[in-house]
Amino acid sequence: MSRLLCQVTRIRTAAATIAALSLLATAGCGSTSSENSTHSSSGTTEITLWTWQSTINDFVTAFEKTHPNIKVKVTNAGANEDEYMQLTNAINAGRGIPDVVYLDYNAVHQFAISDQLRNINDYGFGSIRGDFTKAAQNNVSVGGSPYGLPISSGPMVMFYNQDVFAKAGVTTAPTTWDEYRAAAEKIAALPGDAHIANDTGDGGFITSMLWQAGAQPFSVDGTNVSVNFSGKNVKKFTGMWQSMLDAKLIDTSTTGWTDEWWRKLDDGSIATMLTGAWMVSSMQKNLSQTKGSWRIALMPQYAAGEHTNGENGGGALALPKGTDDAKAKAAYEFAEWFAYGDGVKVNLAQGGLPPLNTVLTDSDWLNEKDSFFGGQATHQVIATASNDVSTKFEYLPYMAYANSIAVDSIGQAYHGKITLQNALVQWGDSLKTYGQQEGFTVK
Q1: Domain that holds residue 118
Q2: How far apart are CA 245 and CA 25, in angstroms?
């Protein structure tokens, strides 16, 4: 392998320190291992799955009932960046590499560009590829080749508390960002400390909002990367969001996924969430006081009649290189079952959102009503949101790192020290420097 590619594939993860990162390498720069290549004398193949999904045992139990020749050993190596660092370390060591691993879509790109994932066309993915949404296909593809089986998606939607809207005199869900701001002003006028939304500078949220605005801040062509936060669609978002920040219409003190955040969502202090549709199941588990008050709507648009959307979240099952070939075949069999076979039924039963056209067009699924959302047929909104996702957006090959440092720049904008637009440019400069250090040609 060339020195440049070895440099390129030393992709750092967000959770690692600089000292630890210097130890990371790739499958192509080191040796592989057959440590996991042993098979049972009974003919049973045991594969190792890495995932942080809490309900994974439901899938494993169902799969093993119909596939007695394959046993799935589940390991939780940590969530997101923690798992990615463990995976990179395993590949570097040439041992302990999982046969199949759950990766967020941005991480699929990171590891695929590093030549650390198997091309699943080699296992027959091409025969089922067409049933996945175009966005899902794009999310797992690098250079036109697929490196993961999509199992979840996160089309952006607007969750809103209809009761809070009614108290504020907002009679319909905003369909444009101008209407959203007008609703924000009415909600801010309510007694107490109410806001239409919260945001503390989360990189994933900002990226999704840029995607929804039609922006394309990143482009990747092999080892050539472009980072540009000066485009007109970037400024569409920053201009709109900055005006709301200046007017103090956004809660910038409450961090997502904290107890305080859930409390404010449940007492009406935060009236909307702009996030992936996968949030449905989390809301049902964590919000008790406002059951029946919430509704789902499409994301507001920058001009009436537009239909542009982005994604927030979602991921795939991928097959890392460096594992036993026979186990890789069994791992693909499990991954295909999960993404396209009977695992889809298990996924749907858990409230998941498989990015399959057959699901999004199924009349029973579309017409299913949800009591948590006041009897709304929420899947109809989610299906439309899925179809509206733009496929022009690209991830950086070091997106996990990018998101981890976003708050360093964007956080300043939330404290009034810099404009959001200038904060994004500053973020971009940091990403250019990092990419160059990792062996990419960045402009």
Answers
A1: 3-153+312-367
A2: 42
